[in-house]
Amino acid sequence: MCRKLSNLISSVTIPPPACMLLPLEVPNRYLFGPGPSNVPPRVLAAGGRPIIGHLHHEMYEIMNDIKKGIQYAFQTNNHMTLAMSGSGHAAMECAVFNVVEPGESVLVSVNGVWGERVAEIAERMGAKVHTLVKAPGGYFTNEEIEKALAKHKPVLFFLTHGESSAGLAHPIDGIGDLCRKYDCLLLVDSVASLGAAPLLMDQQKIDILYTGSQKALNAPPGTAPISFNDRACHKMFNRKTKPVSYLFDMTHLSNYWGNDGKPARDYHHTGPVSGFLALRESLAILAEKGLENSWRHHKEVAEYLWKGLEDLGLKLFIKDKDLRLPSVTTITIPDGYEWKELLAYMIKHHQLEMTGGLGPSIGMVIRVGLMGYNCSTSNADKALAALSDALKHCPKRKA
Length: 399
Ligand code: PMP
Description:
Bound molecules: 4'-deoxy-4'-aminopyridoxal-5'-phosphate
Radius of gyration: 23 Å
Low-confidence stretches: none
């Protein structure tokens, strides 16, 4: 027998939470950490457009535009290009889950937190993980990489292009050729560097490249562009076992994005429609500005910031200018200061976010990110003024 609706309503024992009866409050902040960065009004407005069905033909057109925007941003002609419904970690997992089978050898370069994460992801899905390790800020020579490829014979080699936990832009040239020599796929993380530092997927022979939406692209967090070339497709579509994740299985995702040549796109999951609208707009802004202009602009503003930081008496964590990531600058924690107090002061008095280190760089650095929309000399001045003020007002605890 059905219970009456009135009985059901009276059976509610948990009252509406008081916080839900108050309006949503979101502060305005300068997001000058390593991400998310501030989202320009045009991208926010795109994300605020009406929701349409994720399987409507207009949405397919928008997804096709996104694919083209990613191909431009990555400098690739890869057909297998799409955006993950999820943050950068979704792209990391998608790459590893699809091209690696349990028991296969994977080589991961670890010079900050991102290599640590990928090593853990690969280990969780049953790969034999080998690591090449350097302290945060260190980089790997092509000779070191070749030695490890020859020794471990991995099916996949992972490298972070923009190591945001250390502020390092890793050299890429020649590594794609090495991976081909040893019959290995090259997977590169460009979450923190895409649009800010030069990267050419096809020319640099990167087999799988992913990024995030919330850094130099200035879209809200929650979508992650990714692209696989033919070598990567060959490996992932000729596997013996199914990938451990249903959501990230590229046989389904390639159909959802219209990449598998089948006449119909089937329901797989409901994509983040608003996130895709915003991502499309952010890719459009990058296309209008031009990649080379964007790279040049990030470099110029970063150099302006670096000079200002040195004028304040601060030391930059990455000594070699050519290895510094233009989007995320790392400052060695100034002697005597508690880094958390400096950050708390800037949020409280300047509404301005910088962050500390992450993973192995915790306690070593303060990170300043000026990415995309946030990348300007006037914002660099704001960051410098906030830091200078914090250095004056926060107590020095150690000698
Ligand atoms: N890789 C790098 C280099 C990153 O900077 C980040 C985000 N800080 C990620 C991966 C992970 O991205 P997400 O937080 O969007 O999952």
